[in-house]
Automatic annotation (TrEMBL):
Keywords attached to this entry: DNA-binding, Transcription, Transcription regulation
Top-level taxonomy: Bacteria, Bacillati, Actinomycetota, Actinomycetes, Propionibacteriales
Source organism per UniProt: Propioniciclava sinopodophylli
Top-level division of the source organism's lineage: Bacteria
Signal peptide boundaries: none
Protein's UniProt keywords contain Transcription: yes
Protein name, UniProt field: IclR family transcriptional regulator
PANTHER family xref list: HELIX-TURN-HELIX TRANSCRIPTIONAL REGULATOR, ICLR FAMILY, HTH-TYPE TRANSCRIPTIONAL REPRESSOR ALLR
Record carries keyword Transport: no
Gene Ontology BP annotations: negative regulation of DNA-templated transcription
Domain named HTH iclR-type: residues: 8-68
Domain IclR-ED: 68-245
GO MF annotation list: DNA binding; DNA-binding transcription factor activity
InterPro entries (UniProt xref): GAF-like_dom_sf, HTH_MetabolicPath_Reg, Tscrpt_reg_IclR_C, Tscrpt_reg_IclR_N, WH-like_DNA-bd_sf, WH_DNA-bd_sf
Length: 255
């Protein structure tokens, strides 16, 4: 006689909420999700916060929408030796700098987050706003925007409003362009995306893909990363070479 599988209720509930948000096709409030799922509102808020933190959902002023990660997972089902090589580089960087590591690339004019390596002791930053709307406030996004030709750089910023995410966020195009013109290949976001968090990024030196590698640390540790920026540059170089070997494949990497 077959036995019923043991299910973890919290996982089932979280997946139910994710499916409900996807089915709505527009921002949906926590109260409506609680009603649709038949869950207590406090439980719904707890599950939604977890889904937002892990990148499955994004919270907006109008409600919750599906984040970047589910699409990345679906498109990454083909897998590749390339993705394994890149993840190995990010894992080594994570260990060397004792920091969460990130890779993003430009796909069809949008900055896409394609891989993250972190751990319980050094978790990723709370990705409460996707890179589509927050590239101007992140080291990853700024490194990628800064590597574009001047006309493409300005066109990108005109297409993407520079939202004020924290009191440190640059919201004027002229100020951001001036910063991008000044940096020497290493871009810093010090509490521009999230209070208490700093990120340092280096663009991929590749003709095949426009992208960047970054690490995130508590704001007070940014100088520690800058002192070891050679590790970040080395990771960016190896990943750039990997993309070149694979013919410029910029498919999202398995998370």
């Amino acid at each position: 006689m077959a036995t019923e599988p043991t299910l973890i209720n919290s996982v089932v509930r979280a997946l139910t909420l994710l499916e409900l948000v996807a089915d709505e096709g527009r921002p949906v409030s926590a109260k409506r999700l609680a009603r649709l799922a038949g869950l207590p509102l406090p439980t719904t808020y707890h599950l939604l916060r977890t889904l937002v933190h892990q990148g499955y959902l994004v919270r907006t002023d109008e409600g919750y929408v599906v984040g970047d990660l589910p699409g990345h997972l679906a498109r990454a089902s083909h897998g590749s030796t390339h993705s394994q090589r890149v993840r190995a580089v990010l894992r080594t960087l994570h260990q060397d700098l004792d920091a969460a590591t990130y890779l993003a690339v430009l796909v069809d004019g949008e900055v896409e987050l394609v891989d993250i390596v972190d751990s319980p002791s050094v978790p990723r930053t709370d990705l409460w706003v996707g890179l589509h709307d927050a590239a101007h406030a992140t080291a990853l996004g700024k490194a990628i925007i800064g590597s574009l030709p001047d006309d493409e750089r300005r066109a990108y910023l005109l297409r993407h409003p520079m939202f004020d995410l924290t009191r440190h966020t640059k919201t004027r195009v002229r100020a951001l362009l001036a910063e991008l013109d000044e940096h020497s290949g290493v871009v810093v976001d010090d509490q521009e995306y999230a209070i208490g968090t700093a990120c340092v990024a280096v663009r991929l030196p590749s003709r095949h893909v426009t992208g960047a590698v970054a690490v995130s640390v508590p704001s007070g540790e940014v100088h520690r990363v800058l002192d070891q920026v050679r590790s970040l540059r080395r990771a960016a170089h190896v990943i750039g070479v990997a993309y070149g070997v694979d013919g410029g494949d910029v498919s999202p990497i398995t998370m």
